[in-house]
User: Fold this.
Amino acid sequence: MGERMILDSNLYKEHGYIKGISLGLKITFLKMVYFLTGKEKRMTLNYPEEKYFYSDRFKGKHILTTKEDGTLRCTSCMLCSTYCPAQCIHIVAADDSDKSVEKAPVSFEIELLRCVFCGFCEEACPVDAIRLSGEYELAGNAEQEWVMDQYHLAFRSTLNGGKGIQSTVDDKDRLKLRL
Assistant:
């Protein structure tokens, strides 16, 4: 708009606080008039009728991937919980009945209220067991609704109709690629 910045410290020393307050009110009033007359487009969306499109790099709600037989891909290596800066991932491991797998999670929980959605858990996982999806509609009333267990993370209805998401790299291919 051409005026001096409100944060300029000399503005207050030269003209006092009234000049700064009046300039702020002027900008607010002009923006309101522009929006009401349609000269400037509004930034708001009519949610939920209009949805915002996030990029593919957006990190939303967590997903635990499954193998082809429907079991969890997680091997309870604890790398995701170790790398998590918010310490919001809690895993209880036990021996698995399948002899080819050393451990399996008995309990896998993520506290979404503590999570900062940084993606470190996704990067740390050596078996592609945890991912961050594009789901951004997170709502809940009680604190217990924000603690997601392994069944919700892997088999919720928004994930392939409750069947879960299979990892794209198979175990045999993983050995060839040394992942």
